[in-house]
Amino acid sequence: AQRVTQPEKLLSVFKGAPVELKCNYSYSGSPELFWYVQYSRQRLQLLLRHISRESIKGFTADLNKGETSFHLKKPFAQEEDSAMYYCASLDSSYKLIFGSGTRLLVRP
Amino acid sequence: GAVVSQHPSRVICKSGTSVKIECRSLDFQATTMFWYRQFPKQSLMLMATSNEGSKATYEQGVEKDKFLINHASLTLSTLTVTSAHPEDSSFYICSATSGGAYEQFFGPGTRLTVL
Fold first, then answer.
1. Dihedrals φ, ψ of A84, to 5°?
2. pLDDT at site B39
3. Average pLDDT over residues A55-63
């Protein structure tokens, strides 16, 4: 079965510092990977997906098949980035498999 | 963007009663809806996948007779927790997709507390 692993429950950084939220996946085929974000008291929303190779709110994520990773990065964290971040993989049945989530706390 | 609503946002019920949670796609037709459960400080766990007009597909370990799912229209799916017990207390979240699209649009969630 597919698995998505986010090893950090909490990541605390100061404003302006670089951020890397780790995500590793287990899937033998070509994975479809996503990052979802949940701001305080808001619903879960899509942040970005690996297929589009886009940058959203300054965040990027590169698929590394060799390391089976899809880490989320941002060079300069902002306070408004504080949220819960979930890495997810789409399985062959188009179901999302979520990681356990990482809470990002950006301190002023 | 596509909007998914859930009602109620919060419900408290007595043990043994049944609770119905609605999930609606407001501005698109949702051919597939998903129901998740989220425990405090934990990730979302998929409970079932619901396709309009057909029976829901439940994940392993989810009791289909306890968590009744109906997806009678392209804009509405309901989850009924039957004979609720305190251990059913949780945050229930639905999501919806349209056609063959991969992106799931999430509802705001419903917090169920069973006394």
1. -100, 130
2. 85
3. 90
